[in-house]
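Incident review: delayed structure delivery

Summary: a single-chain prediction request sat in the queue longer than the usual turnaround. Root cause was a stuck worker, restarted by the on-call engineer. No data loss occurred. The affected request and its eventual output are reproduced below so the record is complete for anyone auditing the incident later.

Affected input:
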Amino acid sequence: MTAERRIDFDPTRVQVRMLRQGINSRPTWIVSLSIPFPGAGPDSQRFRELALVSVDANTGKVVDLKVQR
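Output delivered after worker restart:
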């Protein structure tokens, strides 16, 4: 299941980063899906909706999901 299918809003911004986490340095995709507040600039850190999804880079499975409202 894709990161976007795990949330209940349509993001207007998407960022994807590859990180190695843990003792075994497991590769993980960190996907940020967000809707900034109206009128917020491109570098704004204020969001109407925000979800952070961790995806195992080896399997493609979602391993963690955090949603801020």
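Verification: The chain is about 0% helix and 55% strand.
Action items: add queue-age alerting; document worker restart procedure.
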